[in-house]
Amino acid sequence: MSTDAPAGPAAPPPSAPPAAYWDAAAATYDAEPDHGLRDPAVRAAWAARLRTWLPSAPSDVLDLGCGTGSLSLLATEQGHRVTGVDRSPAMLARARAKLAGRAAEFVVGDAAQPPVGERRFDVVLVRHVLWTLPDPAAVLRHWAGLLAPGGRLVLVEGRWGESAPVGLSPAELTALTAPLAARAELFPLSGDPALWGRPVRDERYALVVRVGEGPAAAPPRHTEVVDVHLVLRRGGEVLLARRSGTGYADGLLNCPSGHAEDGEDVRQALIREAAEELGLRLAPEDVRVALVMQHCAPPPARPRIGWFFEAAYGAGGEPRNREPDKCAELAWFPLDALPDDMVAYCRAGLEGLRAGHRFLLHWHRPGDAVAHDPAAPGRAVPLDGGSGPDGGAGDPP
Question: How many CB atoms lie within 10 A of CB 271?
Fold first, then answer.
């Protein structure tokens, strides 16, 4: 964003700098890890957060103080239509080049009073801008008025510096948005160094405010991600892939997997993912549903429904690693002696499958790790009767 957090001696003062300041900074702005998002891990971390904060369906997003368009680009990659506003023509020139050919337009203007006429948006996205504005309460009211019914404000803010911090605290911003909010959710960000390209000690967070007619407004309808997992079996073994460079669960083993895309049924999605990741040419008759699991991961991941499909080794050809940028290795492991260094979600699914279950709940609690922990309480709860995959009834979600 073009009004960003203090980063050193050349950082802006705690007030909105003139456009000339940002025009001069445009050439080097993307060099900061959390500005340009050039590092794959930083980029993946911000993409994961945006998936949590933005609607799951394609939406109209107003990115205020958009700078060189790094978050705008991630939003369009997730299927959204973006209008970016920034006071710096030089910043916007870089944003237009970065998003050429995508569903995005950019307008020179003041983030506090964006020149969008009567248009209304599903999301107003603002990163590190509000803290510089002289009357944040009035600005928030104006931004809320730019939202379509059921819209939301996504506000990324912080208190930067340790000896003399500047910015807005979570409590201050929550109080400012309270008159507008039907529902607000706070996401601490300081403890996620992947977002910043380094560990940080100051206070950084996001507040997602769903704007309504008041506290009694109806909450948004619950939605979940649908994903598919291939359990490729070679006798008593299963094929696992070690994640790498994705920004989520890197270094851990997982079944080859992916998300269902719009217009796909789950079997089509599984066949497509098998081709993309392993080079397998599976036919519909080669696969069968082995298990369905509802899973809730630690934040920022969203709840999901996982479909585990079985296929026999040899169907569709010889598996090979077709995505080395996302997968460090493929290896076979005994299903009855799985390795510990696995994604907990996948491990629970395979254990449930081995135990003969068809339907499971697997809901993490706050503090649960993404990685499987042999010493942690079992979270898998079978919905088809019998004992849990870990030999007990499983904890309630």
Answer: 23
